Amino acid sequence: MAKQMTEMLKGTLEGIVLALLSDQPAYGYEITARLREQGFADIVEGTIYALLVRIEQRGLVDISKVPSEKGPPRKVYSLNAAGREHLAEFWSSWTFLTERIEGIRRPTIEGEK
């Protein structure tokens, strides 16, 4: 099941991270910690940092540098207008898919009874 979960997560992780950033700006480790708090225990920081680079390059977030007590300044990511638009599209797609998947799943579950 872990491999299947990993594959499913690949397609949704960007939207999940954008959703977290819609609540409040955060830096990479903070995002990873929030995901782990939500039960995504297997998420590694490297995956999140690579994703943050991609969404930064696509112009979905704004960056500010905040001094750190330990080392160089931290990059804090905040959702911008393009990111909010992309997140709205993600939720629209998510709703479409989950409604159809549940429509397929319900008869299957009822047939098992």
Topology summary:
Layout: H1 2-23, H2 28-37, H3 45-57, E1 61-66, E2 74-79, H4 81-112
Antiparallel strand pairs: 1-2
Helix pairs in contact: 1-4, 2-3
Could you give a short description of this structure?
The protein has 113 residues and is mainly α. Helix content is 68%, strand content 11%. 15% of the residues are buried.
Mind explaining what this structure looks like?
The protein is mainly alpha-helical. The chain has one domain: Arc Repressor Mutant, subunit A (Orthogonal Bundle). 68% of the residues lie in helices and 11% in strands. It contains four helices and two strands. A two-stranded antiparallel sheet has the order 1-2. A hairpin with a 7-residue loop joins β1 (61-66) and β2 (74-79). α1 packs across α4 and α2 packs across α3 (45-57). The longest helix is centred in the last third of the chain and has 32 residues, at 81-112. The two termini are 24 Å apart.
Side by side, the strands of the main sheet go 1-2
Residue fraction in strands: 5-15%
The radius of gyration is 17 Å
Helix percent reads 55-70%
Q: CATH homologous superfamily?
A: Winged helix-like DNA-binding domain superfamily/Winged helix DNA-binding domain
Oligomer: single chain
The number of E-state strands comes to: 2
Can you write the helix and strand succession as a string?
HHHEEH
- What spatial form do the alpha-carbon principal axes imply? elongated
Head-to-tail CA distance between termini: 24 Å
CATH-derived architecture = Orthogonal Bundle
Number of helices: 4
Number of domains: 1
